[in-house]
Amino acid sequence: MKPPKFNYLRPNSFEETLDLLEQYGDDAKIMSGGQSLIPLLNMRLSTPAYIIDIGRVKELQGIREEDDVIVIGGMTRHVDVERSKLVQDKCPLLIEGIRWIGHAQIRSRGTIGGSIAHGDPSAELPCILTALRGEIVIASKDEEITLTPEEFFLSYLLTSIEPHQIVKEVRFPKMVKGSGYAFEEIARRSGDFALAEVAVAIELEKSGMIKDAKIAMGGANPVPFIPEETEEFLKGKNPHSSLIKEAAFMQLDELEPEGDIHGTEEYRRNLSGVLLERALTKAVAKAGGGVLA
Ligand SMILES: Cc1cc2nc3c(=O)[nH]c(=O)nc-3n(C[C@H](O)[C@H](O)[C@H](O)COP(=O)(O)OP(=O)(O)OC[C@H]3O[C@@H](n4cnc5c(N)ncnc54)[C@H](O)[C@@H]3O)c2cc1C
Hints:
- By secondary structure, the chain is an alpha+beta fold.
- It has helices at 14-24, 37-42, 78-82, 85-90, 92-98, 104-107, 112-118, 124-131, 149-152, 228-234, 241-249, 265-286; strands spanning 7-9, 28-31, 50-53, 63-66, 69-73, 135-139, 144-147, 153-155, 158-159, 166-173, 180-186, 196-204, 210-218.
- The longest helix has 22 residues, at 265-286.
- The radius of gyration is 19 Å and the shape is globular.
- Flavin-adenine dinucleotide binds at residues 29-37, 74, 101-102, 106, 110-111, 113-115, 117-118, 123-124, 161, 166-167, 191, 193.
């Protein structure tokens, strides 16, 4: 199907973008990579009067270091993050997870801001951002605000962003040197959205005990889920395989997966536990700890 008719606006600067959002925001949709928006238009699930294509807005592109944070502009494409040495060195979990997004063709067009703004609970980036306790910077003509993932992601494909606002940048905290990490996911076919996914970052003490665990689970709930009790349970303990198994399955009753033709509710719930066990095991091993049988 072809998209419905719309007016096409292509700003050349960030300031111009904010002006257009101020003027047309209520009837407009921002287009970054178009990898989710174009299908929505074609299926007539979205019928904006204006499309604001931000592909030429240089101020929204790029990756930089700022104290303890890697700051990624909203219009930065997935492929540029995937190939970034800075991200590889300071936030390798992001590289590991981003490779699961669709296929190379999709990652060469899709953007960080678009993935976050789209708010799909099965998408990789919201899950990683939530696990790492990152932040989303939102701008409008009048103000700039910074939100946590909990404040930003409200429900399935629903975020707190207003029509006159834009995801300006996404802030990923640098990972502690030597920490272990893993991103695990199962999809029906390579490149599909996840049936379930988990992102994990682990820090170990010199003694081998777990110092800190950061976890997010995606695909099961309307927004990425942080199993806080599990994180607390792991701290200060020896990462023995039986401990990891116990941790991985301890909060599954707080997941709310919906059953469909791709998998029952029970299957998705159990899958989340299996993936968390695998991710924790890999992350501990990467952090230099041996997981004892
Ligand atoms: C075949 C296929 C498979 C895919 N598989 C995956 C997958 O496995 N995992 C995954 O995460 N994604 C997947 N995607 C989606 C892809 O990652 C998209 O790139 C991403 O969801 C949206 O990014 P985009 O830049 O293309 O955004 P767009 O499609 O341009 O926009 C998406 C939505 O976000 C809004 N938006 C865009 N940018 C901004 C901004 N800066 N500020 C505010 N609002 C904004 C738009 O108005 C629109 O509502 C897949 C897509 C396809 C076509």
